Amino acid sequence: MAVRTESLLEMKGIKKSFDQNHVLKGIDLDIKPGEVHVLLGENGAGKSTLIKILTGAYQKDAGEIYWEGKPVNLQTPIDAMRLGIATIYQELNVIPQLKVYENIFLGRELKRGGKMSMLDHKAMREEAKRCLGMLGQSPNLVDMQLGKLGIGQQQLVEIAKALAFDAKLIIMDEPTSSLSAQEVEQLYMCVEQLKKKGIAILFISHKLEEIKRLGDRITILRDGFKIETMPVQTTDPDYWIELMVGRSLDEKFPKQTFTLGKEGFRVEGLEVAGAPEPVGFSVRYGEIVGIAGLVGAGRTELARAIFGADPSRNGKIFIDGKEVKIKSPRDAIDAGIALITEDRKGEGLLLDQTLDFNITMANMKKFAKKSRLIDLKGIREEAKRFIKELKIRPDNIELKARNLSGGNQQKVVIAKWLCTKAKVFIFDEPTRGIDVGAKVEVYRLMNELVENGAIVIMISSELPEILGMCDRVLVMREGKITADLPIGEATQERIMKAATGA
Amino acid sequence: GCGGSKGASGGGGEERVAVVLKTLSSPYWKYVEAGAKAAGKELGVDVTVVGPNAESEVMQQINMIEDQLNQSPGALVVSPSQPDTVVPVLETATVPVLLIDTDAKLKNKTSFIGTENYEAGYEGGKLLSSLLQKGDKVAIISGALGNTATDERVKGAKAALEEAGMVIVAEQPADSDKTKAMSVMENILQKNNDVKGVFAANDDMALGVLRAVEAKGLDVKVIGTDGTLEAVESILDGKLAGTIAQNPYKMGYEGVKNALAAINGEKVDKRINSGVEVITKDNAQEKLEFLKTISK
Amino acid sequence: MSQVVVKTKNEVMNGTLKRVLSKFGPLIGLILLIMVLTVLSPKFLTVNNVMNIARQSSINALLAIGMLLPILTAGIDLSVGSLLALSIMMMGIVTVNMGMSPFLGILVCLAVGAGFGWLNGILLTKLRLPHPFISTLGTMNIARGIALIVTGAAPIAGFPYAIQFLGREFVGPIPVSFLLVIVVYVIFHIFLTRTQTGRYIYAIGGNPEAARLSGINVDRVLIIVYTISGLMAGLAGLVMVGRVNSAFPLAGLSYELDAIAAVIIGGASFMGGVGTVWGTLIGALIIAVLRNGLNLLNVPADFQMTVIGTVIIAAVFVDVLRQRKSKKA
Amino acid sequence: MSQVVVKTKNEVMNGTLKRVLSKFGPLIGLILLIMVLTVLSPKFLTVNNVMNIARQSSINALLAIGMLLPILTAGIDLSVGSLLALSIMMMGIVTVNMGMSPFLGILVCLAVGAGFGWLNGILLTKLRLPHPFISTLGTMNIARGIALIVTGAAPIAGFPYAIQFLGREFVGPIPVSFLLVIVVYVIFHIFLTRTQTGRYIYAIGGNPEAARLSGINVDRVLIIVYTISGLMAGLAGLVMVGRVNSAFPLAGLSYELDAIAAVIIGGASFMGGVGTVWGTLIGALIIAVLRNGLNLLNVPADFQMTVIGTVIIAAVFVDVLRQRKSKKA
Ligand SMILES: Nc1ncnc2c1ncn2[C@@H]1O[C@H](COP(=O)(O)OP(=O)(O)OP(=O)(O)O)[C@@H](O)[C@H]1O
Ligand SMILES: Nc1ncnc2c1ncn2[C@@H]1O[C@H](COP(=O)(O)OP(=O)(O)OP(=O)(O)O)[C@@H](O)[C@H]1O
Ligand SMILES: [Mg+2]
Ligand SMILES: [Mg+2]
């Protein structure tokens, strides 16, 4: 073998299949110290699977892994950690019942003395504060119970967990998917610092701007094969997309403008738990309204309150000028409202049920025949239709949701709500974890919904998508709506100003 | 009877006797309770009868004894679920202690009133043998293994059956449960459909066995133990061949009566045999009437 | 490896077979057990004995299918044994002691079971007790207490034929109670796979929050679940009374354990959302076959418990092995 | 409502109080129970009776603290009652029947409990049985069976003083067994809050996959958990033998239910990751106080069950109410 001292890590001919599904068909990858190496591929291309093999979470079927030139056998996550590999997994891997600092040090607790001694809670707290500080987070966070945090902050804790680790390689599987602009910026700075220290980073992302900004080299995966590894700075993102989806993409935001109709949806004096004052806004037919804001701005809370997901709520909601009484999600669904929740695992999916079950769950009524039995065939056909429409892969309705890739899971959640034929769609971070190609599909879907007379509201922390797809932008800060901008007046600066209050 | 407060009839100055039984969840122990209560009424004693939910609740019984002692009764009547277990707590008692139904090696006990379970089982075995021919096949249905009362009965029955030259082809547990006994008997008959007699360590199981036998239309003599109302009725109907009654009512009655005697400083016999009654068709009517009067 | 493989007919067949096997997973454990017992005892595989097993399994089978529902919702119902006892005692009081119509008695029996089951559901959902373990442990004690109180622990015998029918009669060689089990299981299968409420039960067990946000009235479904479980306890009681022609307050003591064991051996998960009607039937049969075999072989009482324990572990382990293999393949 | 409020000292105090209350939540249920019983029975709040309760609670308290660990990992240990029986039977054989040293006997007692507990852990992790309900249901039967076999179901009496010491003696008015409980609980508290393995137990219950991916050796921790649970069953057996100076094979029958009830009443969750040592102690005390109170009031046996059922539900409900209030406030 050739001299490998140059590479920190080399993976050669990695193969992996689940049952009949051949996911990785011989992947090569090499990572050099101090570089940011990006993995890019469609949803279900096998990116997460590849890194799970690297971290010892999965066992490879074939292939070799070399660490600093020496072959290694990674059987368990501990093996990888010992080598100096820290991982931020795509799906949150935290213990909701434990405190933030305990999560940060999980598996590598600091102790007072030798191996058998007591834990040093104080030292862990201090060190946790330092790591959270690197991400611009308040030190008060360390003693919070993790489950009480919003999903974005949980993600930050995951990142802090990797930072607290004296790693040579940090794997980040879509770390920014649940963060808003400010935290993302902090993370970028962090990555640059790490790079300077000679730490290598394997970075997975569907956000091309961020790849362009951070990446040194990029490896494109498609259909279980490695297509190409190339330098980031000298290649064109459109070329990456072409390699990754097998064709070129005409436009990233297929914005369509429709004639503005009358007001279709209105929220008045809604008291959201934890918000300082009642909230109100309205949406007209023919427009897509975006809600922007930082993590924890209260957007999700607002959506949940509208949907009747949280108890005790005052205020009025009108659809087509008629007030609807909403006390529970059932009421909301009956009134024609759909909420595509942001946390797909916690609030969206039945992981152990099949895709057709998941997709039709919120609209089972529709499939009840006169005999009151469910039309199983109808369910399967409806599910197949959505799987095709949203390009969910693998396109096997019998598959359990658990076994889908993150992005495909997200698509299943969207399908579930499309299936309800609602009138008002509230999307909470709908494109989180979805690849560039599929994003366009989701945007097209929104267009279609608006065209067919639905109300569409999109909560998003992705400013480009807000700016690219919406007709009007509401900005939230600390539970209040601080700006209501027509798209013509909405600029990145104005939105950020309203969001931060600066 | 289900009330516990009936004993508190008279005015103050009454002696109080606490009775702690193995359980109160079965007819057998209800008869003991009835006997104790009757004695209390007749003799003007305040009688408290308590017992855990099940005979297997051994520690719960110990706790009950402690809690009763804590309320300083005049005397204590105990029927220990596991004989040895009550010794430490009862040794500390400063009041007269009488054991009923089941004896224990207790130095300071005033008396033991009852019949050994072994003897009851032996009588049952004898009764069964008398209905069969030498060399006939018999089966034994035991209680939950480790239940000392049913285990002793089984030992006694086995001894008598073997002495009489019976062939024991099966010995299986049915946890003192009627339904389980029925299933067990069905399965035994599957293999040995020429079984001529069955000894069951309590009446509930005997009745379950009987059901299985009847369903097959076989002529099998079934003997139970305890002498419950249901069993006696079955004997009168010509179904159950017999049962061995240990006279629980008398145990309860004598227990309280002698407890009062001990409180008053009178002499009490160390050993009072309450006897066993072999109940067959001949004397079942009499027994039935007696049981009906005591269980109202 | 990297080329696209055309599936041969053989492979497709294999796939179907695998799917069937994985659906009827614990079946292998049952078949193994039957094979062993057939070798050990010539009496085992006779029509007569098979019918015996069918009959003996029926009470537990009815309790187990009721228990499947709470377990599918990640819950449990500890009260079924006690509810069985209370149901039959009330039926005894109505029909034997008060001499009323047997059909009224049957109605009372089922209504008492269902009513207490409903109470379990209410306690869980409206009082928001943290786990059905607590609420059903509570009602387990309450119902047993009442069963003991109503007749002062005395049993009730001499039920009318109409009540005994289910537990006692045969159609040809087949016990009516087992036919009842089959009918009930078919109904449950349809209920769980083909009705809205049935599917909601799986949804709630899989992810209660997602279920709620999908517009499912979780409380309503849970109340239905526990009511049905109670109803099945009443029905099991009816069969038991038919079998032994008497009702006694300690009936069904600790039967919940056998019912839970049947459901879990049948492949259901305590974490909810996973489990099938047929698996449960096989679980109940495994337990009945085992008990029957021990009796046939006249295994000494003290060894029986040890054998039962070992077989429970082994039966489940066989299934685990099978799954591990099929995953590797 | 809408302005930012500066926290006054009073509020901070309130916050602390709330935290304490929420930590010692079930305490309110216990205090209420004690108040009611003090009013109903003059004998209840006497030194003598309080010490009785302390002693009577100790066996269940020891089993419950062992049970807390499996429950924290979202598991369960059904075998503790049987392990208790097997442990003391083996101790009896060693010390009474074979006349060996009492200290060897104690060692055997604890080792048998821990050894079988270890087996539970191995079955769960290495055989990959789907849920500890199965493995511990199996060993529950196996251990009970062996306990019955070893002496042919005969009890063993007449233990040496050294063995009886723990369950029998007093320091002043305080039973040694309760002092033991206190010491054990303090050790468990330190273990669960201050050691790595202790924290891992919570982590595994909270999210086993995340725990595994964080490099925690989940199997190892689970084996430790079940071994400790078994060890505590042995220790509880030692205390029991001290109290009754005898060992019998049906000892500890269905004690697992009381132990589980104590843990759950004490605020732990079957879903894992939630539960404290002190809550468990209070849960065990609630059960003991309740039983003792019913005995003092001479409540008839059949009513006791009904009352116990009701109080179990009520005790937990009080806690639920409190939590609901504190959330609203
Ligand atoms: N445990 C599993 N069992 C079966 N199939 C699986 C399992 N995990 C992943 N897969 C399949 O492997 C394929 C690759 O999944 P993976 O999660 O690696 O995709 P990905 O590239 O990370 O996608 P995304 O961008 O959506 O995160 C998918 O088809 C998925 O369905
Ligand atoms: N269950 C909870 N308990 C306590 N605090 C919570 C809980 N859920 C959310 N929060 C907090 O409430 C605030 C609002 O969160 P929310 O999720 O509504 O914000 P968001 O604007 O949607 O942000 P995100 O981008 O994270 O979705 C955050 O500070 C969050 O930490
Ligand atoms: Mg992925
Ligand atoms: Mg949000």
Which pair of chains has the greatest number of interface residues, and how are they split between the two chains? Answer: C-D, 49 and 49 residues
Instruction: Indicate the CATH class of the largest domain in chain A.
Output: Alpha Beta
Span from first to last CA of chain A? 58 Å
Helix vs. strand class of chain B: alpha/beta
Our count of helices of chain A gives: 17
- Which radius of gyration of chain B do the C-alpha atoms yield? 20 Å
Label the structural class of chain A. Answer: alpha/beta
Note the main sheet of chain A.
Answer: 6 strands, mixed
The overall pLDDT average of chain B reads 90
Tally the structural domains of chain A: 3
CATH topology category name of the largest domain in chain A = Rossmann fold
Neighbour order of strands in the largest sheet of chain B: 2-1-3-4-5-11
The main sheet of chain B comes to: 6 strands, parallel
- Parts with pLDDT < 50 across at least 5 consecutive residues of chain A: none
How many distinct beta strands of chain B? 12
Oligomer: heterotetramer
Number of strands of chain A: 20
Short descriptors:
heterotetramer; B: 296 residues; alpha/beta; 6-stranded parallel sheet; 10 helices; disordered N terminus; C: 329 residues; mainly alpha; ABC transporter involved in vitamin B12 uptake, BtuC; two-stranded antiparallel ribbon; 4 strands; globular; binds adenosine-5'-triphosphate; binds magnesium ion
